[in-house]
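Feature request, filed as a ticket because there's no other form

It would be nice if the structure record came with a short human-readable summary line next to the tokens. Right now we just get the raw output. Example of a typical job, pasted below so the devs can see what we mean:
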Amino acid sequence: MANIGSPKVRGPNGAVSAGSMVDVKTLIKHPMESGFRKDRATGETYPAHYVAKVEVNYLGNTVISAEWSGGVSKNPFYSFSLKATKSGPVEVTWTDNKGESWNEKFDLTVA
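Raw output as currently delivered:
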């Protein structure tokens, strides 16, 4: 399928205070096929193809590890908050049930 991937991750603009909670928003293009939907013309089932795992690392430590299924909508948007302790990278990795993965990161600046 064309245009799978192209992840986007957006964190706060500019520096944040140490100890503050910051919102992070993510988006990835993915068909998120459950394996139950059928082609109306042929009656054939579309094969399952979905993001199975989302992992968030901050300063090299895993802070979120989520298992997803085909029940999540196409092109999933995911947002979360994390506590800013030190400046460093925030990296999000998506892995689908076919073993393909994508990642995107941004540098969080703590003043």
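Something like this underneath would help us a lot:
The chain has one domain: 6-108.
The chain has no helices and seven strands.
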